[in-house]
Amino acid sequence: MYQEFLSFPDDFAWGTATASYQIEGGAREDGKGPSIWDTFSHTKGKIEDGKDGDIAVDHYHRYPEDIALMKSLGLQNYRLSLAWTRILPEGRGRVEPRGLDFYDRLIDGLLEAGVTPWVTLYHWDLPQALQDSGGWTNRKTVDAFGEYADIATRRLGDRVKNWMTFNEPWVASVCGNLYGVHAPGLKDVKTTLAVAHGILLGHGRAVPIVRANVPGGRVGIVNNLAHIEPATGSEADAAAARRWDGAFNRWYMDPVFKGAYPADMLEWFGDLAPKVLSGDMESISAPTDFFGLNYYTRRLVTHDDGEVLIKAKQVYRPYGWRAEFEEFEDWPEALYLVLRRLRDEYGNPVTYVSENGTTSIDSIGDDGCVHDQVRVDYLRRHFAAAWQARKEGAKVEGYFIWSLLDNFEWGFGFSKRFGIVYVDYEDGLRRVLKDSAHYLADVIRKKGFMVRSR
Ligand code: FCB
Fold it and tell me: Which atom of ligand 1 is nearest the CA belonging to 410?
């Protein structure tokens, strides 16, 4: 029987990830202002289960318990995001000290527990006040983001050394402004591309601010990348796959790593492309210290005239492994291929898998445990893909599981569970470690894991 222990180095950064709106709750506490997600989740019909993030999983109050959970599992890294409107309720101007105090307590608690914090400045919860004046299509939002980044890094930069500017600009722009399934719920092609540009400008604005305010700090952006394949051997599908790759991967990677939008996509978008001013691309492509890769799926793509932006759509194979979150295929090879591509096409940046994980239909068994074997298998196979890419020279230096806790999964509400810790919504938000949490703890303890043939 084939078996092999795949080992990871001592300083490999294992951890978990979360986002403010998905876990904190405390939506109107301590002076917090409304974000576009507060507005969107309270708009009838927008969230699948009709719920909102007002309480979420109450991390705002239970953070000591959640930190203790991390400590008990030996998780030495934790990626969290700040809620911009806790710190600046109107997006700019007046600072809310109680918001900053909360993040102070959270960071101190993590450090006391031996957990290194990795902080994302923007995980989609734009202040509603800024959306009201055009959101990311308005360059004043970029100024406001710079002010917020300055305040946050001045306050926390003595203790937080790893900063991530934006989470998944593709999702924030496309799901929010073209598909309308995320906040702010718009459906406009031109707005979508203007928002994407505004977000990239925000990234460029924040990089020197983090550098100036955080002694010994490091900064990077988090993009979600997928491995794209044409569904058939036809030329139409090959072109559709190139467009999907252009609009999904390269549109957000090339400006940051190569200082330009991809030429083929600029031509494809034509008049819809955003207005780029002189200096924009220099700012967006300022060197960063690492890249955060959120990886969830490969995408098999076919030509489709009905799709407005790129005339392409994702298809699935009946024999493929689709996650319970149906858009995602369980396809670890694609993680390996994406990491190899970062090595070959983007200068092999120091990379952290800043999110990877899966949903499964979890429940508490008669023995009081949650046996999420689907997630354990998923994680093991994806860890192995990262191991293989490392072996071939990709600079993967850490891995954060999405997510620490079951939480508010955006448009799906609480109907999808991504956590390695179960949250019992019927029983006072009680936390129960799933088998996957024990598995991850074991991998961290042993600095690797065994794979074997079946
Ligand atoms: C990513 C998001 C994260 C979570 C996972 C499942 O796109 O960054 O907040 O929703 O998907």
Answer: 10
State the Cα–Cα distance between residues 8 and 444, nearest whole angstrom: 9
74 to each of 70, 116, 205, 437, how far by Cα in Å? 6, 12, 35, 10
Beta-carbon contacts of 3 under 8 Å, excluding residues fewer than 6 positions away, are: 450, 451, 452, 453
- Report the C-alpha gap between 77 and 16 in whole angstroms: 7
Any catalytic annotation for residue 168? Answer: yes
Burial of 74: CB neighbours in 10 Å, binned 0-12, 13-18, 19+: middle
Tokens of 342: 């970062």
Compute CA distances 172 → 124, 136, 199, 294, 385, whole Å: 6, 10, 9, 14, 27
371 C-alpha to ligand 1 centroid (Å): 23
CA of 376 relative to ligand 1 center, distance in Å: 19
- CA distances to 24, 28, 50, 102 from 44, rounded to whole Å, are 22, 19, 7, 31
| From 355, 392, 397, 426, active-site residue | 355
Percent of the chain with pLDDT over 70: 100
**If you measure from the C-alpha of residue 101 to the centroid of ligand 1, how many angstroms do you get, rounded to a whole number?**
26
CA distance 287 to 208: 10
Q: What is the pLDDT of residue 331?
A: 96
- Coil, helix or strand at residue 7: strand
Ligand 1 neighbours, Cβ below 6 Å, are 19, 22, 167-168, 171, 224, 294, 355, 402, 409-410, 418
**Do 285 and 255 touch, CB atoms closer than 8 A?**
yes
> Of all atoms in ligand 1, which is nearest to the CA of residue 222?
8
Q: What is the pLDDT of residues 80-115, one digit of tens each?
A: 999 999 999 999 999 999 999 999 999 999 999 999
Number of alpha carbons in the 13 Å side-chain half-sphere of residue 115:
28
pTM: 0.98
Atom of ligand 1 nearest to the CA of 168: 8
CA atoms within 13 A on the CB side of 179: 13
Angle ∠(294,147,144) on CA atoms, nearest 5: 80
Catalytic residue, from 96, 168, 329, 409: name it: 168
CA of 270 to the centre of ligand 1 (A): 30
- Encoding tokens for residue 44? 């009838």
